[in-house]
Every structure is written in structure tokens, then in C-alpha cells.
Amino acid sequence: MNTLDTTPLKPDYRSGFIAIVGRPNVGKSTLMNHLVGQKVSITSKKAQTTRHKVNGIYTDDTAQLVFVDTPGFQTHHRNALNDRLNQNVTEAVAGVDVVVMVIEALRFTDADREVLKQLPRRVPVLLVVNKIDKGQAKDAATLNAFIDQVRTEYDFAGVEVVSAKHGLRIANLIEDLKPMLPEGIPLYPEDMVTDKSSRFLAMEIVREKLFRYLGEELPYAMNVEVEQFEEEDGLYRIYIAVLVDKDSQKGILIGKGGEKLKKISTEARLDMEKLFDTKVFLKVWVKVKSGWADDIRFLRELGM
Ligand SMILES: Nc1nc2c(ncn2[C@@H]2O[C@H](COP(=O)(O)OP(=O)(O)OP(=O)(O)O)[C@@H](O)[C@H]2O)c(=O)[nH]1
């Protein structure tokens, strides 16, 4: 924490908060992971994997960019959980210095328009066109025509094109963002990439595995809770419960002979060992909690 005190005040140093918004699956988490150079948010091929906002922090000699990752918008699956997800988007955006609106190249939909509608007019919005590595988007004329079209939808402060997955033009994006931030000292220690606890990151890793290994709908009916997290002689002991709605879901998650749950736990443990740079003992088990997604009080207990 000393870093804050010892950081010399550089002239023109910039620092501030940036919200990354966009409809589900446009690549917000992938982008943030590249921006901060470490896996702090989770990614998945399925939509809506980001439930908590995660702060990713990028620091260099001239600026500190603090990213707030927001959950995607959810238009189907209406329940109390999704109402809170949408509420979180507006909350996360209030009070930031810049909004990064991520869209997919050559694909601008009503869901994107919905996101734009939620943005406060007084905050500058940088349009980031992601997935430029894909198909027709590689053709500059096609991409430019698409961008011109999207620019008619909103008064964007600027436009950048990237491929988050391949780390293309991420440095350009960082340079675009710097002058959009106010002058000021670093808000966090320079070596910090996230203000989320190890506990939170452990939970996110397990959630990512659930999305990766279960069918389309199932993970939406699940949540993950860290029951115990202990550090002892360089070993992390982590006990994680997966909460499901029904017995049948429990069966699917555990799999034949416990195989699926074992695979999920093993992969999660390996990711955690890499992230925490230490040995991890991980136990994941399944609990049935009927109707949890509609129980607001329960969501609060989970910190949502
Ligand atoms: N081809 C290509 N795929 C990408 C790119 N960026 C992200 N993806 C893929 O798009 C999918 C969704 O990425 P995420 O980062 O999880 O998207 P998200 O916007 O955070 O999604 P939610 O959490 O649902 O809001 C994943 O399969 C990524 O690998 C890109 O630049 N190019």
C-alpha cells in the first residue's frame, strides 16, 4: 500500500474510472482481461456470465485506468436476479469518467440500442468495435461503412476498433482513453490489477467452469458461494458450494460417477493455482436451494 505515498506526482498524470458496457457476449470480459493483462474477469461462450462488477486496473507512467466491468443486459429469463443485474449496469455507470461501449463488428442490434439508452448523457462514451478479426470485418471498407452507420445512433466521443481475443489494438485503446480522464494521482497502488479479493476470484473461476461444462440454460439456475477460504503455509484451502434449484440439476452437475464435478473442480483448481501462484486445495460441492433466483434477500446475502 506504500506505493500510493511514494508515487511522485507527475505533471499531466491522468487517472479515473471507466465503465465497460455492452450487450451480453460482445467481449467485455475478454477486453478487460487484455486491458489489465491478467485474468480478472471471466469469459465464456455463453451470454451473461458476468454477474459482479470487477475492477481491473491498468497503470503506467502517464495514467491509471480503473475499469469497472458491468453485467450484460438480460432481456429474457426475467426474475429478481436479472432485474438486479440490469440495475447494476446503471449503478456501475453512474460516477465514472468515461464509458466504453463495446459492440461486435458488423452487428448492431436492438440490444445494443437498449444499452445506449441506459447511458447517462453527461458521461463521454467511446465506441469500441470488437471482433474485427472475424470474417467480413477484416475488410476495411465494410468495417468503415458499419462504423459510419453506428455513429448515427449516438453522439460518441470517439471510436476505436479492436480484437480483444487476439489483443489487437489494445494499446491504441489505452492511448485513446488517457486524454479522456481527469488529471490526478493514481487511485490505487501501481502493482494492483484488481481490488477484488482472492475469495471473489476463486468464486468467479468456478462459475466460469460451470458455464463451460454445462448445457445452455443450466448455469443460470445456479450460484456459487465460497463457504471457507483459508491461507496456511502457502496453501489455500477453498471450500465452494454450488447452489442449484432442483435435485435434477444437482444430478446433471455431478455427472456420471461424479465425473463432471470432478472435471470442473480440477480445472478450477489449476486456474486458481496459476492466478494465486500457490498450491490450492479445492473442494466443490452441490447444494439444493429451491427458488433461489427469486429470493432477493438471499441475493443480498450473496453480496449482489
Ligand atoms: N473472434 C473473436 N471472438 C471474441 C473476441 N472477443 C471476445 N470474443 C469471444 O466472444 C465470447 C464472449 O466474450 P466475453 O468476453 O465473455 O463477453 P462479455 O461481453 O463479457 O459477455 P457477458 O459476460 O455475457 O456480458 C467469447 O467466446 C470470446 O472468446 C474477438 O475479438 N474476436
Automatic annotation (TrEMBL):
Keywords: Cell membrane, Cytoplasm, GTP-binding, Membrane, Nucleotide-binding, Ribosome biogenesis, RNA-binding, rRNA-binding. Residues 48-52 are annotated as: G2. Residues 130-133 are annotated as: G4. One of its GO terms (cellular component) is cytosol. The keyword Repeat does not apply. Residues 22-29 are annotated as: G1. It is found in: Cytoplasm; Cell membrane. Pfam families: KH_2, MMR_HSR1. GTP binds at residues 22-29, 69-73, 130-133. It comes from the Bacteria. One of its GO terms (biological process) is ribosomal small subunit assembly. Residues 14-183 form the Era-type G domain. Its main location: cytoplasm. Signal peptide: none annotated. Residues 214-290 form the KH type-2 domain. GO terms for molecular function: GTP binding; GTPase activity; ribosomal small subunit binding; small ribosomal subunit rRNA binding. It is a peripheral membrane protein. Residues 162-164 are annotated as: G5. PANTHER family: GTPASE ERA, GTPASE ERA, MITOCHONDRIAL. Monomer. An essential GTPase that binds both GDP and GTP, with rapid nucleotide exchange. Plays a role in 16S rRNA processing and 30S ribosomal subunit biogenesis and possibly also in cell cycle regulation and energy metabolism. This is GTPase Era.
